[in-house]
């Protein structure tokens, strides 16, 4: 099910994004959805794995985001992996066009949540990590985990 995150109702998170990319900047964008899509999302039936955002004709679209079909939907149910339009200011889209034309930058969705009754997606301007960067991140996480474990043991004993 969906998880509460402060005042946001987080529906889906892209956990691979932090592992595969350096996130440089984040933007909050609205989503254009059909009725059965938002109903399915509110039930927590969304997956951001392998999804990405792309700009075409001055508009941004979210590709490969999987929203399961609504179980109570009829024959007018939505297609699960269709491209969904993201709502951003023209100035932000133009800024992202300029930044993504640089080598190695892409736009990845980080999380989807409900804010004030509207579906929002947090997208990040990301630069791909090399394999040695990924190993360095894992080493740092393991060291942090070890320190926390040692601190807990010390507090107990």
TrEMBL record:
It is found in: Cytoplasm. It holds the Pfam family SmpB. PROSITE patterns: SSRP (PS01317). Its main location: cytoplasm. InterPro entries: SmpB, SsrA-bd_prot, SsrA-bd_prot_CS. Keywords: Cytoplasm, RNA-binding. It comes from the Bacteria. The keyword Transferase does not apply. Residues 137-157 are annotated as: Disordered. Required for rescue of stalled ribosomes mediated by trans-translation. Binds to transfer-messenger RNA (tmRNA), required for stable association of tmRNA with ribosomes. tmRNA and SmpB together mimic tRNA shape, replacing the anticodon stem-loop with SmpB. tmRNA is encoded by the ssrA gene; the 2 termini fold to resemble tRNA(Ala) and it encodes a 'tag peptide', a short internal open reading frame. During trans-translation Ala-aminoacylated tmRNA acts like a tRNA, entering the A-site of stalled ribosomes, displacing the stalled mRNA. Belongs to the SmpB family. NCBIfam families: PRK05422.1, smpB. HAMAP family: SmpB (MF_00023). This is SsrA-binding protein. It comes from Halalkalibacter alkalisediminis. The gene is smpB.
């Amino acid at each position: 099910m969906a998880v509460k995150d402060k005042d946001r109702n987080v529906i889906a998170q892209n956990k691979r994004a932090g592992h595969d990319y350096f996130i440089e900047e984040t933007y909050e964008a609205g989503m254009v959805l059909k009725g059965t899509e938002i109903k399915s999302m509110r039930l927590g039936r969304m997956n951001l794995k392998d999804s990405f955002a792309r700009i075409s004709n001055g508009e941004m679209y979210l590709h490969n985001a999987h929203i399961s079909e609504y179980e109570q939907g009829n024959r007018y149910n939505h297609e699960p992996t269709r491209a969904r339009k993201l709502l951003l200011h023209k100035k932000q889209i133009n800024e992202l066009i300029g930044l993504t034309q640089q080598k190695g930058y892409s736009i990845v969705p980080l999380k989807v949540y409900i804010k004030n009754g509207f579906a929002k997606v947090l997208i990040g301007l990301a630069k791909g990590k090399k394999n040695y960067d990924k190993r360095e991140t894992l080493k740092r996480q393991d060291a942090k985990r070890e320190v926390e474990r040692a601190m807990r043991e010390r507090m107990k004993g």
